[in-house]
Each structure stands twice: as C-alpha cells, then as structure tokens.
C-alpha cells in the first residue's frame, strides 16, 4: 500500500490496477476505483437483540459491543442474549467478563471463548489484573477489547499487552469536563508514530457529530447506540429535498 495511506485513520485504498479507461477531452484517463478498507468500522453498542436485528440487515454494522449495564437493562439472561446476537450472524461480539484477579479473568475469558468461539471478543477492564489477563489471552490468539480507557498511558499499556481493541469512553470524559475526542487524537498520534496495531474503538459515543470527529481524529471503529446509527443517515435537507423530488416525479 502507498505509504501515505498507512495509519489509523479512515482511508481509501487504491486498487492495484485501473478498472476503467475512458476518454475525456480527447485524452484517455486511467481511473481507479476507491474502496473503503476494513479500517473504518461501525459497531452497535447495545444488548437489545431486536435493535441489532433491525439494523444488521443494512450491511453497515461490523460488530456489537455489550457491557454489564447494557445486559442488565435488557432484563435477560446474558448467555441467551449473546447466543441470540451470534445467531443473527454477528461476527464480532464484545462480551465483558468479571473477575478480581487475572486468573479469574483468564478463566472466564477462556470459558466465553470455548462457548462462542472466535465471534467473542473478551472485554476486560484496564487494571493491572486486566492487563495481565489481556497479555495471556492475546498470546493464545483470543481477541481482547480493553475497556474503560481514559488516558494515553492506559492505551499504551493495553497495546503492550497485545489488545486487539482499546475502548476510550469519550462521552463519559465529556460528562466529567474532560475532552473525550482529544484523547482519541492523542492515542491515534502515539499509535501511528509507534506503528501500533491495536485498534482504537471509540466508545461511549452519544451523538452523530462525535462519530465523524472520532474517525477524523484517528479512531478505527466507533461503537454507537442504535439511535445514533439511525441519526447518521438522517438530514433535514435530505428529507426536504426528497419530498420535492418525489412530488416532481409525480408532476
Ligand atoms: C462501550 O463498550 C461501552 O459499552 C459504552 O460505549 C459505554 O457507553 P456509556 O458511557 O454511554 O454508558
């Protein structure tokens, strides 16, 4: 890949050969199709199976994140929720495990992996015990999402522990008079300079504007509530313009 196209941001990848050649102003131009790489992804942040089912059919959702609070709010047995989500065809489901020690976290992470296989990404807290468990699970090939990230130093430790994802909680930072999006930029800067493969999964995203900004600043993935996903497609001028076009179709 062109070196200018490397990094953590949302990028377009040029195909290795021209797909179309067409004449323009008497000259032939080689044009290349640009396709979005796997780098920029949207996950849904919910444990409500019907909410996932409704939106998964768009083909735009690459994964699901859950947490104990979202599971509790669903009012259902966690294992049934995970099974139902996986049966919908989700390929990457973050499942948070509980434990005081790294041993407990590892045991619980391995158990989840045995149950759900590689669809399950094990979500661990960014504590020393969580980091030890992350190192172990990552070394045996289990994806880990390190959650509750609020600083660059935590992000660095998670990357050293081999985490597949880190989840900075931008909304919760904003709630506490910190700038969540600045953290995304700071982590992305370090990861880019150090060529770190751990992906930045912007979490605790509360509005549409933050999604665009998080990707602009270097997030690889945004996990968003269903409502934010719906709002991403909406624009008052699209609605208004479409009304006019539809009326003109019939005129
Ligand atoms: C992500 O993994 C978390 O589940 C989630 O984004 C937390 O969001 P909240 O701060 O809105 O609870």
Descriptive tags:
single chain; about 250 residues; alpha/beta; 8-stranded parallel beta barrel; 11 helices; about 45% helix; globular; disordered N terminus; binds erythose-4-phosphate
Protein described:
- 45% of the residues lie in helices and 21% in strands.
- With 251 residues, it is of the alpha/beta class.
- Strands 5-6-7-8-9-10-11-12 form an eight-stranded parallel barrel, surrounded by seven helices. A two-stranded antiparallel ribbon has the order 1-4. It has a two-stranded antiparallel ribbon with strand order 2-3.
- It binds erythose-4-phosphate.
- The site of erythose-4-phosphate has 12 residues, from α7.
Order of helices and strands: EEEEEHEHHEHEHEHEHHEHEHH
Largest sheet: 8 strands, parallel, barrel
What gyration radius follows from the Cα positions, in whole Å? Answer: 21 Å
What distance lies between the first and last C-alpha atoms, to the nearest angstrom? Answer: 50 Å
Low-confidence stretches: 1-37
Mean pLDDT metric: 88
* Bound molecule kinds, no repeats: erythose-4-phosphate
Morphology call: globular
* Beta strands, count: 12
- Strand ordering within the main sheet: 5-6-7-8-9-10-11-12
Residue share in helices? 40-55%
Q: What percentage of amino acids are in beta strands?
A: 15-25%
Instruction: Kindly report the oligomeric state of this protein.
Output: single chain
How many helices does DSSP assign? 11
**Helix/strand structural class:** alpha/beta
